[in-house]
Amino acid sequence: MAEDFEVTPFDVEGTVNYDKLVDKFGTERISDELKEEFFDLAGDRNLYVDRDFIYSHRGLDKTLEEYQEGDGFFLYTGIGPSGPMHIGHIISYYFTAWMQRKFDVNVYIQVTDDEKYWDRDITDDEIDEYVEDNVREVAAAGFDPDKTFIFRNREYMGNMYDGIVKIAEKVNNSQVSGVFGFEGSTNIGMNFWPAIQNIPTFFEEKRCLIPAGIDQDPYWRIQRDIAEKFGHKKTAAIHTKFIPALTGPDGKMSSSKPKTAIMLDDTPEQVEEKVKKHAYSGGGDTLEEHREEGADLSVDTSFQWLRNLLMEDDERLAEIAEQYSSGEMMTGEIKEILVEELNEFLQGHQERKENADEIVQQMMYEGDLAEKMWDKKIDLQRRNVKT
Amino acid sequence: MAEDFEVTPFDVEGTVNYDKLVDKFGTERISDELKEEFFDLAGDRNLYVDRDFIYSHRGLDKTLEEYQEGDGFFLYTGIGPSGPMHIGHIISYYFTAWMQRKFDVNVYIQVTDDEKYWDRDITDDEIDEYVEDNVREVAAAGFDPDKTFIFRNREYMGNMYDGIVKIAEKVNNSQVSGVFGFEGSTNIGMNFWPAIQNIPTFFEEKRCLIPAGIDQDPYWRIQRDIAEKFGHKKTAAIHTKFIPALTGPDGKMSSSKPKTAIMLDDTPEQVEEKVKKHAYSGGGDTLEEHREEGADLSVDTSFQWLRNLLMEDDERLAEIAEQYSSGEMMTGEIKEILVEELNEFLQGHQERKENADEIVQQMMYEGDLAEKMWDKKIDLQRRNVKT
Predict the structure, then answer these.
(1) For A184, which of B165, B170, B172 is closest by C-beta distance?
(2) I need a surface site. Which of A114, A366, B55, B309 has the fewest CB within 10 A?
(3) Which of B117, B123, B168 is nearest residue A165 as measured by Cβ atoms?
(4) Looking at the complex, does the CB of residue A300 fall below 8 Å from at least one CB of chain B?
């Protein structure tokens, strides 16, 4: 795609240097070749990968190779129930569900109702409320209810503690301090957390593939250090860029700052108001300047969101890019387009969330995979010699 | 007792200064008054307490007061399945079972099949073998199978994880480093261990009473720091002195050094051989010296074991003390008496262990308390504000 573009909007990336992040973390860019292989095997293209919003990986090549050889793989992601979710939270679940449908693989979703208690000033009641809500949001992303297992750590601990004991023995305080920055003032729950975070990567013999923000990559170093000691494969990962806040590329979308984020339960009116009031514009300060210089797409939230998250239609996006960057299209116009696309997305999402009761029940307790997992004890290979 | 003694063997304590330990740990000596109150309420006297082998406490006075007021208390101890057990291991269980019978209270016994994996170079199979063995040894100590719950952490974790999450949030790395000496090289399982160790102290609303070696006292500082934050009582403790090794008061009884210990499964012949060969004598080096100076009871293993662990009969013990310390009785004679007492004790113990199948099953799964505990989720009071 994108070869007939006059403007190549797919290279502009705001203020983050994503090449540097790849270097820093020692991951790899998803090459054009790997991208095509991914789409070939998926039997479909994907917006996020196509537009390089998902742009980095670790071991995706090996994962696809094993998939081709019939070994398969599985997906693992998590839900941290600490608040209502915004649009920046949900994208990765849509991508994960897309991969599940295309590759026909199992997905494990760990609800970290223990970690959030250790990490935040939050009560049990709040956690329960956010679990209830967040699980329904995630369910709306289109997972297969018979191949997806969503589990609350506090509920599922009895089934996975044997394996967690084994992981915890292989990881020491210095390691988690190095990787997570834990200190003397860190509570011992948080300090133990890496053992719990890692156990789902061992739920199957197959390779685990984790879709996550590029900034999360270092946290999986521990898994890569210990996996082979248990005869398991190192986990693979596929990394997203950051989604800019509504208020601009330097901010972070946050549920507690409504200006910065579109919440998943925002009404069409709220969306319109937020975008019009707060969406950061890369357009000129005056009409004259805008007509002359055009908009800076790299910092324009409306354009970035359309490109990275929402607008499937390549041609229309290219047109918008050209018109807006040339100054022909005004900020008000691109904001209208964003509002329309957001509301269309949210309408579908909210409807699916509304009707998620049954699939939530299946993914947590009664679906094929959930039933299998509740019957299972997760342990790791016993070793006779310490390594 | 002991007022008509010519020699007061009950004051001699080998090479450990137990008063200093009480000062160091900030515990209290069990006063004569408290001792009498304890016996009054128990409706019986107890060898270990009578002879000051159990000599220190923390909050035993409050515990007995609450017991008198009808609030009751419960007992908590543990089994660390890392090897076969010797006589030094079992005494505390006999005392705990005695208290259970006299005060009619529940006993919780935590089998630390997680902590031992983290702390020792030991395999799952070895742990399983020692759990099987150690639980039967402990069952032989005479617990009430309907009021005793023996649980393996790895098995029972699902029922207690909610509460453990709450404890872990209240304890930080610096605290466990201060109390347990954990370091960077400590694995994150061991570092988390204090949260698991503490949860049974919250199994009931009543005060928990822990019988333990005086050296274990500091490990419960964390419980005393956090208990009231959950609306629970600080745990009380009742402390034993150290049991000298067979080879003398400076050594430690150890299963891996057979010379130093009488194992619970030793045959009468093995006991006789070990005592005759290895029991440290406080007697004179020559017959002449012995007849002249007598034995030093404070370092003589035979005498110390008889006094602290085995010989119920005060008068006979006083006679032995007098005769042996005056040089009238020879080392060979007191060793004969020890062999006889040990073998009598071991014969009864081994028979009870042999027939422990059913009561083990009750204490772990099917007795009244066990059934209640398997139906229960342990959680701690939810708080609305961090304290």
Answers:
(1) B172
(2) A366
(3) B117
(4) no
Where are the strands (E) in B105-196, listed by range? 107-111, 148-152
Spatial CA neighbour of B290 closest among B335, B319, B320, B331? B331
pLDDT of residue A280: 95
pLDDT of residue B3 exceeding 90, the answer is no
Q: A145 vs A69, A107, A108, A141, A150, CA distance in Å? A: 26, 10, 11, 11, 10
User: How far does A134 lie from chain B, in Å, by closest CA?
Assistant: 20
The C-alpha of A381 sits at a distance from chain B's nearest C-alpha, in angstroms, of 10
**Residues whose CB falls within 8 Å of the CB of residue B153, separated by 6 or more in sequence, listed in order:** B110, B111, B112, B113, B114, B115, B196
Per-residue pLDDT at B255: 82
| Cα–Cα distance measured from residue B123 to residue A384, given in angstroms and rounded to the nearest whole number | 6
- For residue range B68-126, list pLDDT tens digits in order: 999 999 999 999 999 999 999 999 999 999 999 999 999 999 999 999 999 999 999 99
- Nearest 5°: phi and psi at B57? -160, 170
Asked whether the beta carbons of B124 and B152 are under 8 A apart, the reply is no
Beta pairing, strands A244-245 & A148-152:
unpaired
**Helix or strand or coil: residue A108?**
strand
For B314, other C-beta atoms within 10 Å of its C-beta total: 17
Q: Specify whether the CB–CB gap between A139 and A350 falls below 8 A.
A: no
Task: Please tell me the total count of domains within chain B.
Answer: 1
CA distance A54 to A113: 27
Q: Which residues of chain A have a CB within 8 Å of the CB of B386?
A: 121
Separation between Cα atoms, residue A174 and residue A340, nearest integer Å: 50
CA distance A222 to A192: 12
* Cβ distance of A121 and B386 shorter than 8 Å: yes
Q: Could you list the beta-strand ranges (E) of B200-277.
A: 207-213, 236-240, 244-245, 248-252
Range of the domain at A13: 1-387
- Helices B331-354 and B87-103: crossing angle in degrees, nearest 10, is 60
C-alpha span between B340 and B321 (Å, rounded): 17
Distance from CA of B20 to the nearest CA of A (A): 31
**ipTM exceeds 0.90:** yes
Query: Which uninterrupted H or E stretch holds B116?
Result: helix B115-119
DSSP for A154-203 reads HHHHHHHHHHHHHHHHT-BHHHHHHHH---TTSBHHHHHHHHHHHGGGGS
Please report, for the domain that includes residue A312, its CATH number. 3.40.50.620
* The length of chain A, given as a count of residues: 387
Calpha distance B343→A354 (Å, rounded): 73
pLDDT of res. A374:
98
On whether the pTM is more than 0.80, the answer is yes
Which of B112, B110, B224, B210 has the alpha carbon at shortest distance from B171? Answer: B224
Contact A195/A149 with Cβ under 8 angstroms?
no
Query: What pLDDT tens digit does each residue of chain A (387 aa) get?
Result: 333 333 333 344 446 788 888 999 999 999 999 999 999 999 999 999 999 999 999 999 999 999 999 999 999 999 999 999 999 999 999 999 999 999 999 999 999 999 999 999 999 999 999 999 999 999 999 999 999 999 999 999 999 999 999 999 999 999 999 999 999 999 999 999 999 999 999 999 999 999 999 989 999 999 999 999 999 999 999 999 988 899 988 777 888 887 889 999 999 999 999 999 999 999 999 999 999 999 999 999 999 999 999 999 999 999 999 999 999 999 999 999 999 999 999 999 999 999 999 999 999 999 999 999 999 999 998 543 444
DSSP state letters, B331-380? HHHHHHHHHHHHHHHHHHHHHHHHT-HHHHHIIIIISHHHHHHHT-----
